[in-house]
Each structure stands twice: as C-alpha cells, then as structure tokens.
Amino acid sequence: MASQNLTEAQLLKFELMDKGVVLSDDAVAALADLNQNRSLSPHDYASTSGVILNLDDDVWVNAPIELYNPNFVSRTPYVLDFDGGFAVEGAGLASRASFWPQPEYHGSTLNIGPLNHYVVTHGDRARLSPVRSCSMTCTFCNIPYDDPISVYTLKPVDAIVSAAKVALDDPLQPARHMLISGGTPKPKDIPWMQELYATVLEAFPGTQVDLMMVPLPGLFDLPRLASLGLHEVSINIELFNRDRAREYMRNKFNQGLDFYLDFIESATDELGPGRARSMLMVGLESIEDTLAGVRAIAERGGTPVLSPFRPDMSTPLKNEKPPSAEFMRETFERASEIVSEFGVFLGPDCPPCSHNTLNFATGVDGHISYPHDRPVMLGARG
Ligand code: SF4
Fold first, then answer.
1. pLDDT digits over 344-379, tens only?
2. Which of 143, 161, 341, 348 could form a disulfide with 353 if both were Cys (CB 3.0 to 4.6 A apart)?
3. Which protein residues touch ligand 1 with a CB less than 6 Å away?
4. Domains in the chain, ordered, with CATH?
C-alpha cells in the first residue's frame, strides 16, 4: 500500500474518529469559562455527535465524546487538555487545538418553535431540514429512529426561511453557506420539495446553497436549479457493495446503483465539474468496495466524499464500532490516488465542512483554501 507523508495532526484525525477524546478537568474548566453554558456539540446527527476541533496544519475533526457516544468512547487514550490553549494528546501523538463554539441561536425558541427543529449549524454551514422523519429507513441513520414515520411532517416553508436567516445572522457563529438535506420526502410531496428548494434559493441569492438528497424520480429539475443558482448537489451512494446496501439501506438499494451514477453524471454536466458530490460510508463494507465506489463516482465526473461510519446510539447499529484509524487511513490514501487519476479530489473542499469526512480539504492543487470567512474558534494558544 502506498503511504503518504501524513502529519501528526492528520494522523490524529483518524485516531480521534476511531476512538474519540476525553476532556481533562482543565479542559472542562476552560470550556465552562470560554463556552459558558452552551452544549459542547449540536449532536443532532450520527456524524455530528462530537466536538469540532481545529488541529495543527488546519486539520478539522469532529471528535466523538463519551457524553454522546458512550458506546465506544470509554477507553480512548486521547485527551483534550488546556494549558493556556487547548491541545490533544495521546498514544504518542499531539497537536494544538481550538474549539468550535455553537451559535447563539442553538437551543433557542421563537414563535415558529425551537429553531433547531429547522436548522443546525456545523462549522460554517447551516443545515436545513425541511422534512421531519424520512420516507426511507437506513439503519446507520438516526433520523428514522429519532422520528419514526408516524410523525412524518413537512415543516412550514416560511418558518424554514426565517430560521435560515437567524443562522446566517447569528452574532457569535454566523453560517456562511447552507445545505438543504433529509429526510427524504414521500413521492406525493415531491412538488412541495421542489418549491421549497426554489424558495430558499431565491430568498438567499448571495449565499451558496447545496442540496443533499436521494435522487427521487422527478425531484431534481437540474436546469431550473442551475438557473436559480444552486451551488452543489450531493447524491449519496453510501454503500457500493450491493449485499451491504441491501442489508443497511434497502430503499436506496432498490433504486439501483446505475440510477445514482447516471444522476451524478447528468448533475456534473448541468452544474459543472466539481459540483456533484457523492458520499461513501467507510467501515460498513470492505476497503476494496469503497474504492470501487470512489472510482465509479470519479469516472462520472463526481466528487467522492468519504464519511466514516459512526454508530449512533438511537440506531440498531449502536453496538457496532467505527472503522479503525488504520482502515480509515488506508482508505483515504488509496482513494486519494484514484481521484488524482481523474483530476478530481476528495470532497468537500470547504475546510470546516471536512470536520466529519476523511479528507483535509485540499483541492486539486493540493492546497487548503477558505471559500468563506473562518468560523470563530475558542482557546487557540496565543
Ligand atoms: S434516506 Fe437519508 S435521511 Fe433517510 S434514513 Fe436514509 S440516510 Fe437517513
């Protein structure tokens, strides 16, 4: 296996995603002072359950903590400490760190109800959730278990737009771009979803808006979305191995792999190179299967995104383990070689949005650049 010269902070990212981090007493005291009484993490989704840290070399990581992942973060050797600034140390690795504080609006309520019912910010991106529950069931995803299909609801469009404005105007941690994501609507609600997409794109013409959604037949009118200024679309294959796909995500399996790949190709044609992403979940299938998925996405002009499986406490997979650091590292290194053959890169290219993905947000030129203002961070060593 080829081995890249990864830095200590880059190696730490894989280790933290595998084993998580504990907070020392000094770190807890520093956070009580700097972060006051705000929660440490939005913990709204399986892959966003940890603390967001910025390490040396501008490495972003969402590090699981025991509070939200007691299922696997009990015996980690990695400690977040504070001594005039945050640092992560353990098992022979160390890096300085800074801590991402949540926006002020998180946990607050307006006349439209709890704002986090509509929007949650991670890093510099606000994620809008127009549908409560999901018409599909993937067993690695918390959405259908947090909110079963009996509570499936379309949320009021004006409330979604109002909540998005609050996220963009947050006085502490303003969102710089947006993602409209799941759950997946029922087929009868596709016209509603199409209008929701158009309404949000028209309401925020100066803000990059991405869509992450199952490619339901008839949902995406790509020419219309392109004319409305859609930035990127994410069509997530998740699992390339068809047996694993049938086992963990039967509804998406039934749509067929070619359907997804054809859509990625047409979205790239319509929106332009680098603007159709597809996520692959690392750890629920073999490395070879994931790499075959990386190649298939890159061949169609899409941007592969590697997302490590994190067992969520609300799902049937809560007793599984995340992939090992070595498994993640090998997948990342071999996937990097594949994408370079096709002149594409491992997404996302927004550094803060790489907190929960297996990449370092280096674009095709191998450099990190920030398309938006950097998030506010706490506790960086001066
Ligand atoms: S379709 Fe998406 S939102 Fe619905 S259960 Fe699967 S991963 Fe979760």
1. 999 999 999 999 999 999 877 889 999 999 999 999
2. 348
3. 134, 136-138, 141, 143-144, 182-184, 214, 249
4. 8-99 (no CATH), 109-356 (3.20.20.70)
